[in-house]
Amino acid sequence: MFAGIDIASERHVLARLDEQGAPIGKPTPFSEDREGYDTLLRLLGPAPVLVVMEATGHYWKNVFAVLTAAGHDVALLNPLVSRRFQDAKLERTKTDAIDATALARFGFERRPSPSHLHDEAVENLRELVRHRDRLQQDFEARILQLHRLVDLTFPEFTRYVHGLDTRLATSLLADYPTARAFAAATPRRIARLRYARTRLVGAELAEQLVNAAKRSIGQHHGATYEMQARHICQDLDLWRERLAEIDRDIARIIDGHELGKLLLTVNSIGPQTAARIIAAVGDPARFKSASAFAAYVGVVPGLKQSGKQNARRAKLAPLGNARLRRALWMPVLGAVRRDPWLQNFFDRLKASGKPHKVALIAAMRKMLMAIYSVAKNRRPFVPITEQGRAA
């Protein structure tokens, strides 16, 4: 038997096909609770069934766990794959029941391989990376809000303190949120203010801030703006601590993870990048080749020539893991500047006339080749230049 499940937040829909591909009854909804799952298992029966469903958000995880525990095979699909399968069938109507039937039909016709969840360490890294990204977004949003308040209440502040995301800036603004507050304070008192636990603001900066505050055009803003600035600085300090805590947790997991420690041997890849690679793909060695791994990330050319359109240069294909590409961008920029094994490769491409960005994308692909090699061979990375040959 083959089955397809259309996943939703509170109610899923199950469709079943027999071994000849004929429907078994009508598509049946079941709820996201124990009673609903009992209904699901009863309808599937005891024999192993190939169940196909999309990896939609996080809603599929409980269904997956229950089905695999019951002995069924579950194939998770990228929603784009199932959508194109339905488009090929010229399906014009979209309902939960039709989607579930299409997934069951996909299982009957294509026989996809069952999916397997990653181990606990990979799952923990995935959750930590996502949680860190959300905190970082909140942190950056708060910085923008603080910029607005400083622009209104003490626009001269950023002439002397560069970067409102620094501990120096938030320590000062937490105690003196506006130009009015700075003007009412003495330079000596501000100079003794500590930031980053041990560092002092200092007499020179304190004198500059007080003098600028007394002439500031934002002195007319009062208590309401002070309250907002203080709250934002408190939030930023809290999120800094949480981000540091997450970074320590990620480093601890990577240090105890075989593949994670090996990835750190690739020049310019630190714990954060290694964590994002493992969180995104689990083990890169699961791909059949380094080229397949690069295609998954999306570092492949997509040449388009049709009719009168005769493009000479292939642009980057739109498909792929954009989040992982972003995570690799800074390590690649650092490697082409500092690491001979990739710097030599990058410089040769530039010398041959390749545009700067094309050479950077090629360098990223070469780094992915190194990552795949480390994962496949389970050996530390050794740059080719160390063996006496050109990179």
UniProtKB/TrEMBL annotation:
Database matches in InterPro entries: Transp_IS110-like_N, Transpos_IS110, Transposase_20
A GO biological-process term: DNA transposition
Annotated ranges, domain Transposase IS110-like N-terminal: 3-155
Domain Transposase IS116/IS110/IS902 C-terminal, residue spans: 261-346
GO MF assignments: DNA binding; transposase activity
Name of this protein: Transposase
Species in which this protein is naturally found: Neoroseomonas alkaliterrae
